[in-house]
Amino acid sequence: VDQSKADHRHCSSTPRASLTEISDSLAWFQDMVRHALDYAVEQKGQGRNIVGIMCEFTPRELIMAAGGIPVCMCGGSFDTISAAEAKLPTNLCPLIKSTFGYSERKANPFLEMADLLIAETTCDGKKKMYEILAESRPMHVLELPQKPDDETAFEHWLNELWTLRKNLEARFDTCVTDDGLRAAIRMMNRERSVRRGLAAHMKQACPRLTGRQLLDLKSLISCIPSDLAKYDEVLATLEHAGPDPAGARDVRVLLTGVPLAHGAERVMDIVEGAGGRVVCQESCTGLKPILDDIDASAPDPMRAIAEKYFHLPCSVMTSNHRRIELLSKLVEEFRPQCIIDIVWRACLTYDVEAYRVKRLADSLGLPYLAIETDYSPNDSARIVLRVEALFETLRAAR
Ligand code: SF4
Ligand code: SF4
Question: How far is CA 240 from the centre of its chain?
Answer without folding.
Answer: 27
